[in-house]
Amino acid sequence: MTLSIPVFSRLRGYRASWLPTDISAGLAVAAVGLPSAIAYPAIVGLPLETGLYASIAAPIAYALFGPSRILIVGPDAATMTVLAAAVGSIIASLPADASVDRTTIASLIALCVGGICLAARLLRLGVVATFLSRPILVGFFAGVSISIIVGQIGRLTGVKIQSEGLVAPFLELISESAAIHWPTLLLGLSMFILLQVVRVSRLPVPGPVIVVVVSAILSVLLNFQQMGIAVVGDIPFALPSFSIPFAAGLPLDQIVLGAAAVFLVSLGSGIVAARSFASRTGEQVDANQELVGLGAGNIAAGLFGGFPISASDSRTAISLSAGGKSQVVGVVSAAALIATLLYFNDALRILPIPTLGAILVAAAISLIDIAELRHIWRISRAEFVFALITMWGAISFGVLAGVVIAIAATLVHLISKMMFPRDALLGRIDGRDGIYKLHRFAEARPIPGFALYMIQGSLLFFNADYVRERIQTIAAGLPAGTSWFVLDASAIAQIDSSAVAMLDDIRADLAADGMTLGIAELHAEVKTMLERSGVIERIGPQYVFEDVEDAIRGFSAEQNGLSRGNRAD
């Protein structure tokens, strides 16, 4: 990997005419990012200022090292939920009397995520971003969203909820209904309704900005704190400062595992976001280069008291809609948040907690992509089932277990696709050139005495028995007098030793039934495997053909030779 700082090449192409729109877009991004920056830390139980620190440090680092001209990074709801599960798991592994600093743990995980990103870039593992398929991600995010919504019950009702899971918190709320603080619930519901009204009305000012301003004004006028409505409280005036978090007494294996889970979800959703926006602007997304930008953003967030970040859909969308042209937008948004910390601290301090809960619920609902779930249902029932399994896993077993289930579902889905490869018998159509699948073309007919069979997929240990049974079944149903059985191997890209042994057994079985096994269009790697195993020698090199037409000609020549021999006799 060559070391390069993309900002230098971008600055060479920067136009002075872009600056006004970049500044206005940066201010818009800061306005939209502020509510989530102060709301998302609550998911993990972190101080509010950590969200601001992450929203300041990460965009600056990405502006320096990130490859995208338009992508804005920052706190992300799905990433925060995985982080919350990771932090909770680490704390649970500590002794009961151990001193716990959630900020240190979150910062350490951010540093580890950044390190994993850079290591993955060195190994060119950007392909990992596509490991979780779109249906799996949609299902996982839906499950994460429901977990976030359930997690806001306490903030919206004023009741301290101890239970976890999907149903238990609601049952606990019912049992503690007498403790519901009705002004808190009324405020939270009102702000949530306002968010939905703004969304439906498509007002030019984003909903979270409106509810933050409205709730801050109401907090001053009605003195929410005196009414018993919880508010944010004191926020340090200090700017984010450089510090290296120490892992003394913390389980490093748990931190690395948590970071790996955050990395997988963050990268998967981040690359999806990058490609989505790149399709609008014509940019090319290189997942390996994005690893550098995301790695730099996470390391910066970890070194300045923040937590893991990812690509932000909302911030990037606002930047594009406001005419943002470059990463100057991210730098301006960071500067605006610094100004907020220094000069608007008092306004942040009186923000009511139910408003932040309403923002989180609205953000979580936006992650549930019902339209995409319907689309998946129309295209593939099997992929829809995997999406539901992943959603159920994240809800029922927790987010970290949900990540494991998402990976397992991906593997099961992948193997199920490869376990039962499609196949077909092939034949001719009178008056037309070429070879045709018999089940697709009613007018296609098999070549008398010659069975041509295609497998559409690799032959590996987990599908070798299935393919053996298919060939045996097909061979048993062939017309009497069939003397050649030719395998069209043009779609067999890979083969392993189990499948090699299977083909050798098939050769012997066919020979016992009076049929010759031939193979056409072998890929080089597959042919090498068959040669090393001696299978080609046992089949006979004369029955290994360059293509299907060559096999047909060989069969015809043999038949003609037999006919001439019979006439001579």
Give the number of domains: 2
Cα end-to-end separation: 73 Å
Strand order of the largest sheet: 4-3-5-6-7-8
What structural class do helix, strand and pairing data support? mainly alpha
Q: What percent of residues adopt helix (DSSP H or I)?
A: 55-70%
Question: Explain this structure to me?
Answer:
This protein is mainly alpha-helical and 569 residues long. The protein contains 26 helices and eight strands. The strands form two sheets. The chain has a six-stranded mixed β-sheet with strand order 4-3-5-6-7-8. Helix 22 links the parallel strand 5 and strand 6. The N and C termini lie far apart (73 Å).
Characteristic terms for this protein:
mainly alpha; two-stranded antiparallel sheet; six-stranded mixed beta sheet; 8 strands; 569 residues; Transcription Regulator spoIIAA; disordered C terminus
How do you describe this structure in short?
By secondary structure, this protein is mostly helical. 64% of the residues lie in helices and 5% in strands. Mean pLDDT is 88; it is low at 564-569.
